[in-house]
Amino acid sequence: MADLIAKSALAGHAPLTLAGVTLSEIALDPITSIAPFSGQDAAVAKALGLVLPAPNRFAEAKGARLVWTGRGQYFLIGSPTPKGLAGIAALTDQSDGWAALRLDGPGTEAALARIVPVDIRLAAFPEGAALRTAFNHMNAVLMRTGAQTVDILVFRSMARTAWHEVEAAMTALAARQRLT
Amino acid sequence: MRIPGKGLIDRTKALTFRFDGSEYSGHPGDTVASALMANGVKLVGRSFKYHRPRGVLTAGSEEPNALIEVLEDGQQTPNVRATVQEVYEGLAVQSQNRAPSLKFDLLAVNDLAAPFFGAGFYYKTFMWPRAFWERLYEPAIRRAAGLGRLSGRHDEATYEKAWAYCDLLVIGAGPTGLMAALTAARAGADVILADEGARMGGALLSDMGQIGGQGSADWAASVLTELASMPNVRLMTRTTVTGAYDDGTYGALERVGLHVAPKADLPRECFWRIVTKRAVLAAGALERPIAFQNNDRPGIMLASALRTYLNRYGVVPGQRIALFANNDSARTTARDLHAAGVRIAALIDSREGASTDEPFPVHAGAVVSDTAGRHGLTSVTVRQGSREFKVEADALGLSGGWNPTVHLTCHLNGRPVWDDAIAAFVPAENAVPGLIAAGSAKGTFSTAACLAEGAAAAAVAIEALGLKAPIADIPAAADENPATEALWHIPTKPGLWNRAWLDFANDVTTKDVKLSAQEGFRSVEHMKRYTTQGMAPDQGKNSNVAALALLADVTGRAIPETGTTTFRPPFTPVSIAAMGAGGRAAGFAPQRFLTSDQASRDRGAPMIEAGLWYRPSYFPKPGETTWKEACDREVNMVRSTVGVADVSTLGKIDIQGKDAARFLDLVYTNTFSTLPVGRTRYGLMLREDGMVLDDGTSARLAEDRFLMTTTTAAAGLVMRHLDFVQQAFCAGWDVRTISVTESWAQFAVAGPLARQLLSSYLGTEIDLPFMGVAPVRIGNVQGRLFRISFSGEEGYEIAVPTRYGEALFRDLLARAELLGGGPYGMEALNVLRIEKGFITHAEIHGRVTAFDIGMEKMVSGKKDCIGKGASQRPGLSGPEREQMVGLTPVGEGVLTSGAHLYAKGAEATRVNDQGYVTSVGWSPTLNRWLGLGFLKNGRARHGEVIRMVDGLRGHDVLCTVSDPVFHDKEGAKLRG
Fold it and tell me: Which of B194, B328, B452, B849 is the right S-S partner for B239, CB 3.0 to 4.6 Å?
């Protein structure tokens, strides 16, 4: 029996740069959903070695990112689940459920303003902020990871639509730039 | 004709464009209207109903007459205002609503028949015979009366939609708006300044006065330079704020690419949703015409438009120009024209005692009572007291006063307030929360006062935001007010053909309004609908106030008492394409692709949509010419060897916690707390109203962990339901749910050889009991194996993390083909389940109970569950219910889903209806058509012959009622 070959959601999509934005598929792996059981928030935080982020925020330490993703739910990204969580939180592997995109560059906000119905200007959506919001007709998790960088998780099966729609926004922006 | 040295156009460059096939020349900065005027073209359109020759009336987006079609790449954009469309090299436009040509329009005969065509004409005339309305009258009327036409093709151009956020939105970049934006920007607020013009400055671009020692346009340019240099300011030109909505949200339409020749990828328009903490409405005021006999001839326009054409575009519509006004602002126009060397034939000022001290003839206390000139004005008749005389003029500027642009303040149900001092409606205070009207939009007309009000409004707004307003540095400017004395209409002379126009766009005259009142339509809203006044693309911007003033007059009421009609968004027309940007064709919804997608397409499988998913319909083999051949083969394959199908679309929900079992007992009708670890159970879920919500299997992975499976169709619905139940009814329970639908790729392997395939692939003898679940290892990948069956054969489902899905699918297919099997698609999957009588959402469509589908025994009597109480209401069970049955035709005959069922021999009428067919398929296993359906008291009628009638497709078939399970009733095969 041969080993199965893993394929990313957007395998074959090379990074695309247009209108001052680079769109690329990134690896945010592994992703584990952590939903603390009743009264276990502090114990979960201790086991993780991270403060549980407030709604619309994420916390980072030692390469691990803990993102608020909903009511009583956090995604631990980029780090295996530490021991000591069994029984105090529901743990669910989400690594394969999401496609990860990165928008990087000075045009990031302009591109996202065409897709996301939320104020994503740096002042309103600063580094360390996370959003669970609509991405056109899709459901997404947005993370502001740099002044000009936003990481985006969308349902894996919808990755091609997400890519296409970001590309369309970038293409229109580039055409606007050529006008002036 | 151009006036040398005037205007803000770039005369160093010439642009060629076409109007009605003829070539004309313009300059950058020109609109189609100004360029046509420069070329001496007066006649630009025909009116809506009477096909009267019409010229340009205004210089803005409120234009009612000069509506044109823009032609590009075979597309045709109708009802574009020539006063807004900028000229570009190669632009092609044409006039509307004329046949065969603008100069010679056959339908101008309507004008001769005008006495018959007054308001209400159609309603009264085309009553009989009734059938003629749709077949004859309406098509004929629609051809004769109307506006522009569409190309009839899909609009495949690019449009954009976008969101913007700010502290202060300033609407309009005239003196008020510029001052407001500058004040707020200097205080550090995030400002968006939006203006519908191609160039910001508003009225200042048409004004020859001075601001702070600079020319008005130069002052505007210097302010804009400062604003453009500030990082907290966004300038949005060519952007019309079209609507005010809740919570500081405004809609706006930006003309992104309409002013240049079409360019690849460039959006035509962008529909913005701007969310702001505060807003300043600085949209200015619209000049209004005066109604008098024949006031609609080409060459008659608003006095302010004359001034704009002269000062901004360096063009005039004639060489002997007359003006008719009830205020002083037209006098400024006359002076500007005179100073530019244009002959002023007369200034006719309706106000008694108006100054006549001008270097051109002024007739005070006089009015225009008629005009002459068919395709262009030649003279006006002036009435002064009892004296009447003609003044030769080839253009006439009108000013009946100014209407503040109150529209946005009314979009949240605010009603404007009548101000007698300026004879106009002004915005009500706080009609839109957070929106402050200032300047001319509030009825303040002098430049100096507009500047001051703009600064003051911004100061109020930014203080509310917690910012400190700098001391306003307001430059000196002229402080002149128009001093309007109300004058709405000059009575026409007796005569059927003598008409005075109110609404140019919809051809509504003073007679129509009088007739409306006379016939009892005295409310302003009724008058609007009776006459269609205000219902054209300009939405009555030029006519509303005059029309209601006349209505007030003829009904003996005051104007405030008469009131206005309702102002609704959008302020100017918004193309649906812009609002729905990106949503055309496949952009309508996200596309969900399976990991097996490419492998399925490689095998030629046509993909069909299942919700948002794309699933293979069938896998054609060489020689197969129809889908049915492939489907029959795939069904036989599963029944005889082994088939593989991607079932990853089924919803999967991870449920954990010490109360997980208790939670499943609550949401499912049957009991799950008794399910042993390593086992799977079929479950049924009800809505709160007792109807069936969904069905599926749930596996117990550990004492406190379940994996729930839902149908594809209800995956999102069930997740939402669980979330609701958890939050509403399970406070304090330790249960956590999350969707893992996307995390696992899952494939059904079904058929007599399924176990053989999996055993050889996994390298270990599979020994899993029916409804068992176990972890499996495929190389280094950890997966899960379920023994469940939707086909009735010995069936397994094997799941791996999604990233390995494609590889696993290809491996399984290769193995299956070695055994004489292969992939099967949705068609075969459907036939297999119909043969077994398994339900899908075709059956559990939201109106059936557990009783109806024969599963009432699955509603456990030992515990409560969501929907249980409601499901026991009277009428939800018993012989009166339509119950699920199997159907097979007697002899030849086709079953169709959607068909209705009747007793044998009964007439196929509504009252005889006894049920309907939900699913059908040709069974290659049993060699006949099989159907599932719902029949009144069906379970007691097995064996009975009934009548199936499909009125749409024309089938009338006798069929036998049976148990819904047609194949392997005992389930020996799937238990294997």
Answer: B194
* CATH superfamily, with its number, for domain B602-649+743-833: Probable tRNA modification gtpase trme; domain 1 (3.30.1360.120)
Q: Which residues of A touch B658 (CB under 8 A)?
A: 37
Q: Rg for chain B (alpha carbons), in Å?
A: 38
How many other CB atoms are found less than 10 A from the CB of residue B73?
Answer: 11
For chain A, the farthest-separated pair of C-alpha atoms sits apart, in whole angstroms, at: 60
Query: Which superfamily does CATH assign the domain made up of B161-285+404-464 to?
Result: FAD/NAD(P)-binding domain (3.50.50.60)
| One-letter identity of residue B158 | T
Number of structural domains (chain A) is: 2
Q: What is the largest CA-CA distance in chain B?
A: 115
pLDDT above 70: percentage of residues in chain B: 98
CA distance B311 to B292: 28
Class of domain B289-400: alpha beta
| Beta carbons of B605 and B617 less than 8 angstroms apart | yes
B363 within 8 A of B349, measured Cβ to Cβ? yes
CB contact under 8 A, A155 and B802: no
| Cα-based distances in Å from B661 to B655, B657, B788, B904 | 9, 8, 21, 49
Q: Give which of B255, B609, B719, B742 to mutate to test A binding, by max A Cβ within 10 Å.
A: B742
Q: How far apart are CA B646 and CA B839, in angstroms?
A: 19
| Domain boundaries B1-152, CATH class | alpha beta
Range of the domain at A37: 31-93
Tell me, yes or no, whether A20 and A106 share the same domain. yes
CA distance A143 to chain B (A): 19
Statement to judge: residues A102 and A65 lie in one domain: no
What does the pLDDT look like over A59-105, one tens digit per residue? Answer: 998 889 999 999 999 999 999 999 999 999 999 999 999 999 999 99
Examine the predicted complex and report whether its ipTM is higher than 0.90: yes
pLDDT in tens, B149-159: 888 899 999 99
